[in-house]
Amino acid sequence: MSLLTKRRAVLSHPQATSPAGNGRERWVSQIDRITSPAAVRAASPEQLTELAADIRRFLVDKVSKRGGHLGPNLGVVELTLALHRVFDSPADPILFDTGHQSYVHKIVTGRAGDFDQLRVRSGLSGYPDRAESEHDWVGNSHASTSLSYADGMAKAFDVRGEKNRTVVAVIGDGAMTGGMAWEALNNIAAGKDRPLVIVFNDNGRSYAPTTGGMAERLAALRLKPGYEQMLGAVKGGLLRAPGIGRPMFGVLHAMKSAIKDFFLPQTLFQDLGLKYLGPVDGHDIGAVERALQRAKGFRGPVLVHCITNKGQGYPPALADEAEMMHSPAAFDPDTGKPLAAGVRTFGQVFGEELVRHAAIRDDVVAITAAMSGPTGLGPFAEHYPDRFYDVGIAEQHALTSAAGLSFGGLHPVVALYSTFLNRAFDQLLMDCALHGRGVTVVLDRAGITGEDGPSHHGMWDMTIAATVPALRLAAPRDGATLRAELAEALDVDDRPTLLRYPKGAVPQELPAVRRIGSGDAAIDVLYEREAPGGVLLIGVGVLAAAAVEAAERLADHGIDATVVDPRWVLPVSPELVELASEYRHVVTVEDGGRSGGVGAAIRDALPTDADVLVLGLPQDFLEAASRSDLLAEKGLTGQAIARTVAGHVSGAARTPGERRRSGDESRSARPEHPGR
Ligand SMILES: Cc1ncc(C[n+]2csc(CCOP(=O)(O)OP(=O)(O)O)c2C)c(N)n1
Ligand SMILES: CC(=O)[C@@H](O)[C@H](O)COP(=O)(O)O
Ligand SMILES: [Mg+2]
Prior knowledge:
The structure is a single chain. The chain is of the alpha/beta class. It folds into three domains: about 5-320, Rossmann fold, CATH 3.40.50.970; about 350-500, Rossmann fold (3-Layer(aba) Sandwich); about 520-665, Rossmann fold. It has 28 helices and 18 strands. A seven-stranded mixed sheet has the order 7-6-8-9-11-10-16, sandwiched between helices. Helix 2 (about 20-30) crosses helix 4, helix 6 crosses helix 14 (about 285-300) and helix 16 runs parallel beside helix 22. The two termini are about 50 Å apart. The structure holds thiamine diphosphate, 1-deoxy-D-xylulose-5-phosphate and magnesium ion (MG). 1-deoxy-D-xylulose-5-phosphate binds near residues 98, 374 and 449.
């Protein structure tokens, strides 16, 4: 008896289809026993239908515990089963664009048993992961890369003469809005005899409905699933109609391509040189399987267009009109309601504040790269739809388009997740900064993000920003500073400005005890002892609070420390340099990579004999773990900072002059950083 036959026997038990009680235990344990795609290949159509239903229950159950990408995975259940029946993974690589919808692939490739550890430290990654399985060829999670990976693999198999392999890339309609996808399509189409199947998973949405010209055409198609029959009926009707014979049909036939142009995406892809199959109902396993078989038989580049529903089969996801439960936090599986009460986030403060500015200033416009809800731009989009642009998953275009808006006399605000700015570095540097454009870039998810792992920690932005001449960067430490710094950013019209803050609750306000200077050069003093001259702790963003805690602990040990938040930490101001020169030791604390970040910029700005200790994240790919755990491990809590500073001070207790005279200390001879 095959595994699936056994499983089916269990499923035929009346209780087994219920997602509660003993029944749930049973189907979960059966799915746990799928060890390879062979089990799926051996299944009958009826078994596959039941398996699809079981997988959905499994996904809801497991994702409800700690959160994850539920809606996207519910939408690709049948599609993934069909893929693994037609293609021979891992010999035929199956790549999932962005990778957030690879949970079903993980189940089919024998990883169901690891789902209790989904997105936890050393557990199952929320994305494909090369270390996890030979079936995961790439560990992606930034969108629109799958077609380029696939193009390269297909070329490699071609060069090596491995003609019987097929590369498969599954790409969503959201990821298809990214420029990289089109660069790759242009190349893929040229490889006429390189077997490469693109499965276009068209659910009409990124988080929110996908926008843009292509999306509009696809949406028209989705609204008219019977278009083939319609064309057939028109043709048949015309041929039979009295007075309208073949000549008239000929004229109308010529119009057909125009009609198709309007309705069909196939012209789009076919004109590029790709074979197009579809559209196929992506929830009909048999139909998808047949289309994939045809595509595989073609032995060249083919696009199979599958129409699916995000959240399919789970009513709470389908009812979530905003995001179809794209990536919910832990929730009640029966109702879909979140388990924890929502917290007030930096993104919310930003979103509300931007609406306030927009009411007063009609030159303020906003741009999102397909993430209006998660970046806090929802209220702006609602209040000012004519000044709001969702450019698709196109961060590079977002930045250059912002430069264009600025040339046109407007002040654009581009809201992104920190990690996605990485790919728009050139646009920030050349198109915005070199051109002196007043563009405000607001980055959420800066620093450690947590469960999404190495690709999503927003720890590169300050290194990027520090290399851009004249760019101003502030990391608000709380809601009040975010409001103030956003207002200041909107007043800059001759260079780009960047604000960055982390995921999670906006922290309690941390008022300044006094302010040194004003305007761009204002420095907030957050904590000071009566006797200056000891340690100057420079806290960047929310880590200013940890610096204050560290200073309090140091005071208990007789070490005097002053804590400041320089507000506009880049470029480093002469006022900060002057202040730092009054202290024996300068310690910078930031929630970003240590190499080339704010601390490094401050160190570079100070005299070479200044004693500067740069605390931050190691320049490494940090694993998935909670933000608090990783900060503690990397030595960025108040307690850890105090311990490091105390150790440093006792080891370097001389003034720069004393060190210079003895000639034994240089900047390169700094103590080892914690957390390496
Ligand atoms: C470069 C980049 N920008 C933004 C994101 C955030 N993001 C993750 S999934 C997603 C939507 C993807 O839509 P689609 O490709 O259609 O997949 P679906 O979720 O609809 O299955 C976005 C914007 C990302 N992962 N990468
Ligand atoms: C796949 C992706 O890039 C996003 O969906 C991301 O995982 C969401 O992160 P948050 O849950 O922090 O919004
Ligand atoms: Mg989509």
